[in-house]
From TrEMBL:
Keyword Secreted assigned: no
Keyword Transmembrane: no
Function: Catalyzes the oxidative decarboxylation of 6-phosphogluconate to ribulose 5-phosphate and CO(2), with concomitant reduction of NADP to NADPH.
Family: Belongs to the 6-phosphogluconate dehydrogenase family.
InterPro entries xrefs: 6-PGluconate_DH-like_C_sf (IPR008927), 6PGD_dom2 (IPR013328), 6PGDH_C (IPR006114), 6PGDH_Gnd/GntZ (IPR006113), 6PGDH_NADP-bd (IPR006115), 6PGdom_BS (IPR006184), NAD(P)-bd_dom_sf (IPR036291), Pgluconate_DH (IPR006183)
Protein name: 6-phosphogluconate dehydrogenase, decarboxylating
Domain 6-phosphogluconate dehydrogenase C-terminal, chain residue ranges per copy: 179-469
Amino acid sequence: TTAQIGVTGLAVMGRNLARNFARNGYTVAVHNRTASRTRALVEEFGNEGDFIATETAKEFVAALERPRRLVIMVKAGDPTDAVIQEFAPLLEPGDMIIDGGNAHFADTRRRERELREQGIHFVGTGISGGEEGALNGPSIMPGGSKESYDSLGPMLEKISAKAADGAPCVTHVGPDGAGHFVKMVHNGIEYADMQLIGEAYQLLRDVAGYAPARIAEIFRTWNTGRLDSYLIEITAEVLSHVDAATGEPFVDVVADQAEQKGTGRWTVQIALDLGVPVSGIAEAVFARSLSGHVALREASRGLAGPKASPLGEAEAAAFADRVEQALYASKIVSYTQGFHEVAAGSEEYGWDIDLGAVSAIWRGGCIIRAAFLDRIRAAYDARADLPSLLSDETFAREIADAQDDWREVLVAATRQGVPTPGFAAALAYYDALRAERLPAALTQGQRDFFGAHTYRRTDRDGAFHTLWGGDRSEVTA
Ligand code: NBP
């Protein structure tokens, strides 16, 4: 027998993905650098479906039907290149290498180009949902050629998560690195979502004066409304968890230094290169970074802050409702920024990404899955060339309804000294976009003053320069 698909790299992700294929009726060839992992997989889960355990690269490739579909699930970076170099010489034109790791899209573009010369389809594929998703249905973001998707699509659709309406959470995102790019932005949005939730929690704790268990209840309630999402759901779980060793709320015994693996940082780095303002995502990345500066935080603990003035019971309840508004409005802004980055990447690299389809495949399986994504899809379905999510009537109206509360929450946060960089960045972005005039005009004046960088005028075409050091007359540049 031959396998319809092969998976090499059998750590948590690869093992679960292989099992997912097998459980869906595919014969799966499995391989890992260290063969004991391959044997362990087949011993433990061999009863779930048809696996072909292989030890050498040659055996692995020989076990695959043609054109071959070979999934790589190894550590991103050099290990991925090493594995490609090991397998590519054994493959033939028309074969497909699917990289399901968290590769940087620029690496994916390079690998795709190199392998294309050999006639091999390289399919950089974003996979979200962690180990649970890999086993039971992830959100899958494949890039690569259209031809490869014709062959792979049906299999990916089978193993993917399904949205509430039954649609598989996978689509051909676009050529070469498009899939990994979209996965990167997904993770950036995930960082922003988590930061905003963290700020909402801190406000409910420090301004409303609520204990974690009570805040968990509030998140549970929110999860039945428009904020309904996986991250809100697990937030309630984490907040209601009590540490067995101390009897304290779990959230109070965990060290408050957030770690990161780098995809959020990439989202911001690439946004800077593309000139896309993803301020909410950037604040989320910086907030994690700040939390890790233990010595700096220690040295700053004595700095002056405002006097604490917790709210009374009735005020606190009203404040909690406001926080929901602020969280929702800020979330709309993060997604606006994230989708702007996807649109900019698509434009820069000629990917022609369907933004509505991207929001649709994030509805299930992935970490940011949420009812909200249906709304985003509806917005892009109604108008594919939407300049921004904020230009969608429904979102604009919702923010209009939320804005008073949003501002009040930031007033309270500022007054009480609770850091809310995510909420604040989102509101600043919103206010900047709707502003009639921005101080950018003054910036241009300063630039022209010190560097003769020239400026454009509101009333006439052309580039101008003022002779600042002379008689201050204006000349055409
Ligand atoms: P790891 O990222 O921990 O990678 C371990 C695997 O890489 C093992 O199979 C290991 O083989 C193999 N490997 C390494 Br390391 N260097 C190799 C080399 N030079 N040649 C061949 N194989 C090599 O595994 P993971 O957590 O399952 O993640 C796999 C990929 O999926 C990563 O790119 C990750 O970023 C991505 N991802 C992870 C998640 C998640 O929730 N964990 C979610 C989405 C995507 P060995 O057994 O012989 O050491």
